[in-house]
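Most newcomers find our protein records easier to grasp once they have seen one. Read left to right, the backbone structure tokens trace the chain's path through space. Once this layout is familiar, the rest of the handout is easier to follow. The record below serves as our worked example for the rest of this section:


***
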Amino acid sequence: MNPPQNPNPAPMKSLVLLITAIFLMASGVVFAGDAPSHAPTFVTEMANFANREQALQLDGITEKLAFRAKQQPFLLVASLIFLAAIGHTFLAVPITRLSHRVQRDHEAKIDSLYAAHGQATQAADRVSFKATVLHFCGEVEAVFGIWALVTLGAMFVFYDLTTVKNYVMSVNFTEPLFVVIIMALASTRPILRFAEACLGFFARLGKQTPAAWWFVIMSVAPLLGSIVTEPGAMTIAAMLLARKFYPLKPSPRFAYATLGLLFVNVSVGGVLTNFAAPPVLMVAAKWGLTNTEMLLHYGDKAVVSVLVSSAIYFFCFRKELAAMGERVVDHDGDGVGDLIQRERRVPRLVTLAHLGFMAWTVVFAHYPPLFMGGFLFFLAFSQATVGHQHEISLRGPILVGFFLASLVVHGGLQGWWLAPVISNLGKLPLFIGSTFLTSFNDNAAITFLASQVTGLSPQLKYAVLAGAVTGGGLTVIANAPNPAGQALLGRFFGDGVSPLKLALAALLPTLIVALCMLLFPDRGIDAMFAPHPESAIHAKSAP
């Protein structure tokens, strides 16, 4: 008798992969103990720049930037490398197209060569090394990792290997690790079925047509980010769009509009609480922001902007949504095409267990040993309930985590020029500057740097935080959840998502958010940013 076979080896493979990753990270921590404990020179210098400039009576932004670049030339080089990485993202799509062309030419050459000798082509022979390398260079998730290596190489040239090791070990990789875990959990079948059932309550008001589902996913799902965190909401919304909307083949214009709107809505949808949006989390403890204050002074504007933006895009593409409704089947016999899908139920206890694992991850989002340990138990549970799961793939989450980890490496070297810019602007210029700078830096980095500037008035604190969440949808690097959305939906955009088209698609909803944040009357901002005891704030801020 043959031994019984595992019906789904994916969870076990994922378990082995994750255990290996944890072992490697743990080994890095152990070996890092041999390194000197002092911070790299440029980190110490960045912390002292403000005091030295005050002593030298340097007031202008230009004077400060020139002084800092002269004192630490490596920081200028690091920023230029980061600028090159941003430029690389705009070339990702053309590079991907080139890789496809090189692959096709290679396959034609190999097929012709083998045919001339009367031999069959083997799959391994059709792999082109050049095409593979080009494809890797065209992966947006890999771009910043490639340039992070260049940055570390430049650091080695300017300093030494010890400095490189000390800097890498000083970088906080908690957020990338958290996004990996929350993406994997949010993409499981029980969580998706639960989210679909919750959103289906609203979609039934529109007879579950493609138009109804599109509007619900674009408006309600992002607001759930205030509970399940923005990365969780992005994963759920993107996977539902991949299941219910993009297979209906929207026009390229509508496809980009949906992606841009999703990024903007998720960026502002997490501000109803003080723990779900990364830019809010970075300043919640230091500025004393409570859940109630976030809901009253940011949440109301976020809800209005999400609903208005979704309604405008719904109106603009109403004809295309109606045409989609005509192409789908009428499952309930009411004469209207719908997206009702009958699937095998997931037992209630299995769903509750998955929700428990997600809650554990959110509560301990700043304690990697706890949320990663919880994920190991989750993988064991998913193995035991394999009949109610679909394949758990960690490739997407790990790529997104790699992207964010690389971005953190770059971001830690941009404070030398960001801090003077932030500290020398008024309310409206600071809001506009924060929105613009967020497009080229993770918005959590913008608010974290602002929290390090002393003497910011309540109005300026409001402006920088509002600007950071407003600009979070303009580019894939503007907000931590965006890479997750692009990784899940990128396959519907041919050779890849165009950064320029994405920015254009997100521009209108970004302007709507900006108008809501700036024009809504709010007399409680000064009281909101009044000092609070940090012990009253449950969110933990980390750089």
Remarks:
- Residues 16 and 376 are 10 Å apart (CA to CA).
- The mean pLDDT is 86.
- DSSP finds 27 helices and no strands in the chain.
